[in-house]
What we know:
- With about 325 residues, the protein is an all-alpha fold.
- It has a domain at about 245-319.
- Helices cover about 75% and strands about 0% of the residues.
Amino acid sequence: MRLRAAAVAVILLASTSLWGFWGAGDEVIHDLQGQFDAGRYGAVIAQLDPAGLGVVSLKLGSENLRIGHVLLGACYEKVGHADRSLSVYQVGVRLFPRDKDLLSRLAALLHQAGLEEQAQPLFERLVRLDPASPYGHLGLAQIDRALGFLDRSAEHYRKTLDSLPMRGDVWQEYGEDLYEARDYRAAEAALRRGLDLAPGNVDNMLALALVLRAEGRTEAALAQLENPARAGRWAAVQARALWLMESGRDEEAGSVVVGLLRRAPHDPLALYVRARLGLRAGRRAQALADLRLASAQGDEAPFCARVAAKLAALGQGRP
């Protein structure tokens, strides 16, 4: 969830630039913006803090003071001081409570820090101020999805994409949300749109493979796993072993499992697949040993461990 939450902050941080009408202090704020654009974040911080925006405000009009808070907060984010950035944005929002830029940035940082109870009202306020706000809708989509309100999150994703139709990562999130809601056809369409915009995104490919598998299109799902597996995505390699075994392609599944267990000798899913293959081939003693070992991995993979334990308890269990 934190990676998804970071996406809101990344979008905002990439768009730190001056906008609005100019007033008193134009030269000061123009110079600060130029230093920010040149990556001289420390220089901007040195001029605005610790001297303080309160002192600089004597030279700045209201609009430029607002921009000063945006620049200072963004600089602190750039140098990795999220706590200081948070404080700057909080002051900025108190001074300019209807400013969408500062609201977006404060909400995004709180969201990224996992402080959803504080972030959600800010995203909601942002959407009230601007019903089309992509940042407000994306934040609310991610929060609602984490809480399991999938109908609400899907609606927020749709409104985000109305404003950001070329964001492949948002299409991917939307597709994953629809997959969780079991709307597989719509999920596939969203994920394919995401891949059109970001053809090399292996996480999107893996998500699409899961959707295709849920639709019963196993061969297409396996084909979609190839690139993520080659890229070393562990979940993709595990899924490939399991789906090959379930499709009766035992030799191919066995080859994948060998690679898995070479890298992680106690991987519970790999042990489970090898046990199932062993039972099919009549290697009952080895299969039961693998199942017992897999069942001991409850902390790592509780569900897989329970399944392995159940099958081992059957003694004469067959795949």
